[in-house]
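As a warm-up, study this chain.
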Amino acid sequence: MCGVNDDVERRRTSALLGGGTGVVLFGLIALVVHADPHWLRSLDHGLGSGPQRFTADHRWVLNLANFVADVTQPDYLVGLVLVIAGLLALVGHWRAGVWALIVIEASRWGYYLLKAVFERPRPHWAHPAAHAGGWSFPSGHSTAIAALAGIAIVLAIMFSPTRRLRYRVISGALVVAALVGFDRILLGVHYPSDVLGGLLLGASITLLTLAAFDPLPHRDRPHRTTIAP
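Now compare it with the structure written out below.
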């Protein structure tokens, strides 16, 4: 039992350190965004203008980017996690399901509130590839996809039968999160700093909730690992 408790504490400490580091990095970006120095505006426009101009000039890129944006809307990701949580409950892993719901909802409300706090306007381009309403920082899509990627990674660690499958899921989740973030820059609806802030926010929330709420089943309780026939 002592070994089990030690493992739990190690996981909790690692998650807390990772989440705390993410919060610090997000806080630094948020402070710079709030100060709005000239160098940040130049950097954001310099990094963002090329991709969005390329998208505006190529219809197939615009269509693909819009498709990615549509299917990764935060509300859709919340619905996906709700389904995952239900399936986890059916196989006896209700704690993992509850944890996943906490992560995605905390991420959604987190970026809602922070957008209202910072009120950063959306990028303005001479020839915009796309338009989006609301405030810009942090990116909601990036926050939500980072949270979903974190959920996928934790569940892969919990349930993957082989190390190879686990690594593939982890790699795939990270790549998808990065691509969705870049998609927001391609469309020109977010600055790179918005996307980076969103990814850090989603990852930080995932780790901090992991530190506060262990998704693993209690060792002293029976649980099913497959759906009963």
